[in-house]
Amino acid sequence: MHTTTADTHHAGAHEAHHDEGGFLKKYVFSSDHKVIGIQYGLTALVFLFFGFCLIMAMRWQIAYPNTPIPLVGGLLNGLFGDLATKGIMSPDLYNMFGAMHGTIMVFLAIVPLAFGAFGNLIVPLQIGAPDMAFPRINMVSYQCYAAGGVVMLVSFLIPGGAAQAGWTSYSPLASTIPGDGQTFWLVGMVLLITSSLLGAVNFIATIIQLRAPGMTWMRMPFFVWAQFVTGFLLLLAFPPLEAAGLMQLADKVLHTSFFLPTGLAVGGNLANISGGGSPLLWQHLFWFLGHPEVYVLILPAMGIVSEIVANNTRKPLWGYKSLVYSSLGIGFISFIVWAHHMYLTGMGTKISTFFQTTTMIISIPSVIILTCLFISLWGGSIRFNTPMLFALAFLPMFGIGGLTGLPLGFNYSDIHLHDTYYVIAHFHYVVAPGTIFGLLAGVYYWYPKVTGRFMSETLGKIHFWLSLICMNLIFMPMFLQGMAGMLRRMSDGGAMYSVAKVGAIGGLSAAIIKLNEFVSHAAWMLALAQLPFIINFFWSISNGRKVTSDNPWDATTLEWQTPTPPPHGNFTKTPEVVRGPYDYSLPGAPKDFVPQNQTT
Amino acid sequence: MSDHSAHDIAKSVKKYWFVFFALIIGTVITVGAYFIELPSVALTVAVALFIATIKGFLVAGYFMHLIDERKMIYGIMASTAFFVVGLMVLTIWAMNDLPPTTMFK
Amino acid sequence: MEIPYVVHPRRDTGLYNAKVGIWLFLASEVMLFGALFSSYILLRVGAEAGEWPTHLLNVPIGTVNTLVLISSSVTVVLGWAALKVGNFAKYRACQTITVLCACAFVGIKSYEYNDKFHHYQVITKDGKVFDGHLVSRDKEAVVLHGHQIDASKGKALGVREASRHGDHGKEIEIKADDIKKIDNYGPAHNTYMSIYFTLTGLHGLHVVAGALVIAYILWPGAGMYKTDPERYINRVEVSGLFWHFVDLVWIFLFPVLYLL
Ligand code: HEM
Ligand SMILES: [Cu+2]
After folding, report:
1. Which among A511, A488, A515, A509 has a CA at the least distance from the CA of A497?
2. ipTM of the complex as predicted
3. Domains of chain C and any CATH numbers
4. Nearest atom (ligand 1) to Cα of A290
5. Is any ligand 1 atom within 6 A of the Cβ of residue A340?
6. What is the CATH number of the domain that holds A468?
7. Chain C contact for B87, CB < 8 A?
8. Residue A21: is its pLDDT beyond 80?
9. Distance (Å, rounded) from C-alpha A257 to C-alpha A250?
10. Which of A178, A560, B11, C252 has its CA 20 to 30 A from that of A436?
11. pLDDT in tens, A113-163
């Protein structure tokens, strides 16, 4: 159904709903939240793929140091010249790819997908709103994101290449590496941060203001709560990084010394700077964002998984209120745990105790959420479709990631584990088989809403099982490597510290180093495992099984109570919400689900 | 706020002028204290920041109408205040609580 | 469906959308400036003894600028109040003053910046330190109008001591060959100047942005007052909130950078 355009022609507020206009207006400069959500989604998926490509090249260098990379070696040589002579990845190129892998995955792939894409697409629908509160700001937010992405991509091709100091960009290293890569990184980050801030303002305002009549706070689907908390994390944690970014930019461009200490030597010579700055200041400001950021990565995925679990167990979520309060708790506490990333910077015992305590406290709400979701499965007659499989796998994978965080949260065990592959394994378990599985579940689940067709179940299941196996084959060995003392960010995969080089005491055994090859092969297999998904994604747009109703999963939440795809303005008439979000298998109801806007 | 009647507005305008003069007086006192050079640095800092805080409250409270704003706004601003204080206090604490033998700051 | 609460407040929250939006935005601004103030404190506490300049900036000028900004804040709120009771002419007069104040503020600030870029410090090879305004500079020599300072307890303290008693110094000529280091009081001079330029620069950008928005609403965007007056008044209120925040930041910046 299309709103007749005649009645939407008064003053400025309503531009959002103009439906006519050419291709550009409709798909590129649209202010409709659904179109923007799709823009975010497609762009982020492309970046996800690109970030993965970077790591696949790096994995060759780790497994087979200083040998030409097959297939793409020539291409790299052509693009980067000296940095990849004869197709061999130089340490500089390794650092560049590593830094950009982290940056792209976190800021250009996962957050835009979890927050930008799913948030935009689903939140207004789930709360019964016609659009976001500020549609034009929403559009600008996407454009800032796209611009930030372009800056990051262009930085690969400038002389000297992209940033090389890791996604954490610690000063003084970051500000003293020659070349403009870091400058581009900072400019790109300022754009991305601006985009996130505009998005966060928009999301929070939308959730506060545009809930449909009857949609009280405690009737909101948990996904909306998750996005609400995520919005606050972005809104309040990003500005300090923006401040830090501006200061590092000044260090780089105006030669100030915010993060550069007195007596700093670069390449053996005293640097020509005033000094007096503090490297730790950067770390504090970075991790003040950094830790909330990890919950920005995980909360939306938890939200998606909760929706899918409720829908496919056909019963209400167990402990909806606990879920809500836990996510609020996570939101609050995540602002005061950041220095657990800095135990090894030489911290006093008092402050270290404080941060250890808060870190342990924050794991409690995470465990509550996980427990609620597990208990929700109990006694359900579970439908094992593809979205549900991904959602189910999310639970133990996130569990592994979260539990392995605890040893990192105590400084005495972190002394051994810090900056090793153990940390890499820890956070990848949370983000890769955790968040990414959650996001993939969301793609399979909401695909019919956007396109009117299902994705193929067969391909979906192949995709799921292969991905699950490969993910574990990749990240499980990293725990071993890390505990054996293998450090992260080494371009030769630790060969320099092998028993052969440094002797048996303190050296990495051959078996541990050999695992590198195993992991790399698993990583490339993971890439192959994504082929069914990519094919499925495009093939199903025009060939997938058509949905027979607007509510193909028999779901209760409002996004399914509108036409498919939803028209401009989303709902044909304002929905009146009369019940909580998960009224499945209500005794006495005619069907096993009662939508939020229906009296039985 | 759309619930302002003309009468309320006239009353508010008086308040605005009052705040305006209070701000000017605050500024004059701060600068005056600077020029007469108070006996201790700590006192100078205390006076300057104390007056600045009062001025801040006046602007936020009356010009920005925080004094009778909605609960929602209070909630947002209170949590922001909590986090900004956390950021300041914890970083400063962390920078001061160093192991006794450390070389670096 | 149309987007609700664009103009009128929602019943349960008592707010219209833009007001929620601007307060959220201001919350993020609080975090932004909060982080910079924290950095200020850390840099200051971490500075070596005698190296953190105090009393370096021109306080009378800063005071004038403070008064300018306070005045602009009151005109914003008076303009809004006038508009509330339907007095468009008075609103326009008030906001015109606001925009003029903004221009004055930026003008004065640029003058101060310019002054700092002409203020130089020279360290000679034999360890003498000179400080003053640049008179001339060529291949052979540099001429400063200022003092030689006693840097034994720190350069910044030396500068303060030298200028303490209203002594404006004299012209000093330093041979180019003797110079080890020469730089102006730009952002790279020391961490104080860095944070000074960053804080005031960012604040200045806010002033410019705020003034542009207010001016836009005041002149090109004024047509809305006829078509949708309530929404127009909301816009004025929201832009005013932003402006007060900019004023509020300055209320803290002024003592912190000029007086302490
Ligand atoms: C649930 C309890 C968790 C605890 C106690 C915890 C604890 C920690 C600690 C202490 C570190 C620092 C390790 C080091 O550098 O030595 C760390 C690193 C990290 N964690 Fe967690 N974490 C938890 C959950 C999560 C979640 C949910 C995510 C993301 C979705 C996450 C993502 C990360 C990332 C990305 C890093 C590495 C950052 C880097 O150094 O590059 N963590 N974690
Ligand atoms: Cu953390």
Report:
1. A509
2. 0.95
3. 21-116+190-259 (1.20.120.80), 120-184 (2.30.30.100)
4. 38
5. yes
6. 1.20.210.10
7. yes
8. no
9. 8
10. A560
11. 999 999 999 999 999 999 999 999 999 999 999 999 999 999 999 998 999
Q: Is residue A16 part of a domain?
A: no
Q: For A95-123, b where at least 16 C-beta lie within 10 A, e where not — what string?
A: bbbbbbbbbbbbbbbbbbbbbbbbbbbbb
Q: Is residue A15 part of a domain?
A: no
Residue A565 CB coordination number (10 Å): 13
Asked if B45 and C260 come within 8 Å (Cβ–Cβ), the reply is yes
Q: What is the DSSP letter of A273?
A: S
A346 CA to middle of ligand 1, Å?
19
Token pair of A47 as six digits: 């970046």
Structure tokens at C50: 């005698």
Nearest CA in chain A to C46: A276
What angle in degrees, to the nearest 10, is found between the helix axes of A181-209 and A222-253?
Answer: 150
A569 located within any domain: no
Pull the structure tokens for residue C246.
């900019």
Which contiguous run of DSSP H or E holds residue A37?
Answer: helix A33-63
Element (H, E) at C134: strand C129-137
| C-alpha A470, offset from chain centre | 19
Amino acid identity of residue C256, one-letter, is: V
- Nearest-CB residue to A346 (from B79, B87, B102): B102
Cβ-Cβ contacts under 8 Å, B6 against chain C? 85
B-chain residue closest to A343, CA distance = B94
Q: Which-ligand-closest: CA of A296?
A: 1
Could you give the number of structural domains in chain A? 1
- Determine, for residues A261 and B94 on separate chains, whether the beta-carbon distance falls below 8 Å: no
One pLDDT digit (tens) per residue for chain C, 260 residues: 789 999 999 999 999 999 999 999 999 999 999 999 999 999 998 888 889 998 899 999 999 999 999 999 999 999 999 999 999 999 999 999 999 999 999 999 999 999 999 999 999 999 899 999 999 999 899 999 998 988 888 889 988 888 776 677 889 999 999 999 999 999 999 999 999 999 999 999 999 999 999 999 999 999 999 999 999 999 999 999 999 999 999 999 999 999 98
Indicate the domain borders of chain B: 1-68, 70-105
Which pLDDT belongs to residue A519?
97
Is the CB of A278 less than 8 angstroms away from the CB of B105?
A: yes
Question: How far, in Å, from the CA of A360 to the mean position of ligand 2?
Answer: 11
Give the model confidence (pLDDT) of B37-82 as tens digits.
788 888 888 999 999 999 999 999 999 999 989 999 999 999 999 9
The response to whether residue A438 sits with its C-beta less than 6 Å from ligand 1 reads no
| Token pair listed for A55 | 């790591």
**Domain limits at A174?**
34-262+272-561
Substitution candidate for ligand 1 out of A304, A362, A415, A423 with most atoms within 8 A of CB:
A423
- Residue C49 is predicted with a pLDDT of 86
Q: Report if residue A600 sits inside a domain.
A: no
